[in-house]
Amino acid sequence: MGSIAKKGFQQYLMQLQRHPLRTKAITAGVLSGLSDIVSQKLTGIQKLQLKRLLLKVLFGAAYLGPFGHFLHIILDKIFKGKRDSKTVAKKVLLEQLTVSPWNNLLFLIYYGLVVEGRPWIHVKTKVKKDYPTVQYTSWTFWPVVGWINHQYVPLQFRVILQSLVAFCWGIFLNLRARSLVLPKPK
């Protein structure tokens, strides 16, 4: 069994080297999907909602993976690949003041409009109510991940690490984003 896992991991690394964008997009999509499955089970959904699951996979594969791929390339170009503490702090700060608020806002809007199919007025109300808490929680959690990522993780693995941690973050966001009291529009 160990040799199968080892061969699979070697294949994954080879794909990551040959096709980094595609591999990161697929990885983010798969992990977003797994995160949604766990979220659905935690909220007591008995039968897996496949449409919701596919929409979450799409968000991970079409947005999170590619966005992360290019973000880390750009950050390394801006800061010339430096990894000293001062540079890492600047990267984390820049990421937390720009990318973090944007990603959380976009997710809440996407979840409400696309995944749940809610009207804009309901989504806007939900975002106004939940976004400050989501962003504050993000700022207590993601800077540590960002620091580790920029300080110790090679560029080609940063999106993978973020996707793995985002698996857990996605569960939190799913639980926070879902509408409990708003009736589904007919």
From TrEMBL:
It is found in: Membrane. It comes from the Eukaryota. This is Mpv17/PMP. Belongs to the peroxisomal membrane protein PXMP2/4 family. Keywords: Membrane, Transmembrane, Transmembrane helix. It is a multi-pass membrane protein. The chain crosses the membrane at residues 53-75, 159-177. The keyword Electron transport does not apply. It comes from Trema orientale. GO terms for cellular component: cytoplasm; membrane.
